[in-house]
Specification:
about 350 residues, alpha/beta, 3-stranded antiparallel beta sheet, globular
Amino acid sequence: MVSEDADLAIVVFHSWPIRTFRIAARLNTAGVIFSLHYHFRRTTILIGVNLGGLEDGSTFSTRAYYNYNVPNASRAEGWIALGCTAARIPHNLYRMQPGGMGTDFDPTYFGYSTALAQPYLDAKGFVFFDPHGFGSIQTSGATVDITTTAGEAQYLDYMTRLATKVAAWMGDASPSCVGIGLMNEPSQHDNATYQPLWNKAIAAMRGAGYKGTILVPWTNWQAVSQFSATNPPSAVVDDVGPCVLDVHCYLDQYNTGSGASAASATIGVERFAGLFASQLPSCYSGIVLSETGCPNDDISRTAFSNMLTALAADSRMIATTVWCDDAWLAKNANYITADTTDPRVQIMLGCLPK
């Protein structure tokens, strides 16, 4: 007789070479599969960018091309042509759901995101949608902490609707090709406060039929340096999967992404050292570095190269998306475009499979 807790490991090799999948199928006492937990890992790290713009401007401004930038899909296609097939697409929560809790998303604004994402889906890369609320929800027309009673209700409504929309858009695409981040850079509370809410959001998203990847942030602006062997990432509950840890790592002294030069040639490697020394809970299929970047000076480029080389060597790393290809941020020294004469782009391309 098979125990209800038995796992049946099924390894599936997809038609493109950079992914393998492990599906843990749980069996009941009659030997019938009653749940599947989907994991994926990549034999090489994916490299790409943040296609920023939709999150630009003040929180409650709504005029496209005036208050915020709308990126063109040609930007995505330019990066994909170089082999950079990962992308993060940030968005503003108020613009997405201007009618507030209980109302549908703005179809035009949601369409801006999917138009950017479609080339990555076609390329069988990895693209993920990221709500830039910084630990708050703004759909009511006011900024509300998502851990409050009112904020939690609004946030769960939002994430359920986002999951439903993305699930319909992605269709039967591989779960490893599409992701949704739970929140960009929450920082008001500690991880123990956010963890129950992440579990509720994951359950709501899976209940809505979303089978893609879920990216889990932690506090302190998602700084990777907060983790160590004695302070590993906390587990979340996701009975479907895949679920990944979502971290940020800039190279300037204060890890802010201000565009200042790297603190040292090894700063990125040092900031990742604690996470790489820790045990990643089994609920996570891997790690995504969704924000990083550096200016174009010698020490910063060396630090960037050292970090990406270290990440590419760790099998838990799934993707890195560099901040940011957004013309409205051109004055920030981290600004980057798909220009192969840029040494930073050359470093990114050097980490791709030969």
